[in-house]
Each structure stands twice: as C-alpha cells, then as structure tokens.
Amino acid sequence: MFTIAKQFHFSASHTIEGVPDDHPCKRLHGHNYIVELILQSESLNDAGFVVDYHDLATFKKIIDTELDHRHLNDVLPCPTTAEHLARYLYQRASKFWPNVVAVRISETPKTWAEYRE
Fold first, then answer.
1. Which residues are catalytic?
2. I want to staple 90 with a disulfide (CB 3.0 to 4.6 A). Which of 60, 71, 78, 103 is the partner?
3. Which residue segments constitute the domains of the chain, with CATH numbers given?
C-alpha cells in the first residue's frame, strides 16, 4: 500500500456551542489550522504517483476560498469542532479523490483530530 499526505494551512475564527459558558472555546477565538490530507493506493498511476501533489491544488482552493480568514460558524454546515471540520473536509476531498483515507486537523501544535471512514 502506498500512502501520501500533504499539509495545508489556514487561519479562521469560531466559537463552540454546547460547552459551558465559562469554557474558553465558548468565546470568539481563532486558530492557525493545519490540515493534513492522506491518500492511499495499492498501485501507482502511469507517472508513478498515488495522486500528483500538483493535482491537490483543488483542495487548497477549497480551503483558501471557503475557510481561510473566515468565521467558521458562518460558513460550515456543521459544528465547528476540529472533529467536525475533519469530516467536512474529508467529504469534500473524497468527491475529487476516492482514495482519500483520512483528514487530520490541528488547531494547536499539541492537538489533532482525525476523520476516516
């Protein structure tokens, strides 16, 4: 099995609903997100790639136009936790590349959320 991954970065604000009023995530705050898109394949294409990294520019465009420097509560159709964001981006990416196996989201240098089916 061949595995590739590529990181993407964006900055955005959000609030988290459903947490106690004194929880810091209830307040408006932001993150410098790191998104990792992970793809796998049993075989390589004619050029020797799982997917050409250059072709992942489509995913970067989604992040840049829909999420970067936005308030996520205004643009996402789901709660704005890292877990939900990972699933949302997984579903978007898998429409372009059926061999997406996971999306990881980091909000801070010490935390990651991952979604895979």
1. 25, 69, 107
2. 103
3. 2-115 (3.30.479.10)
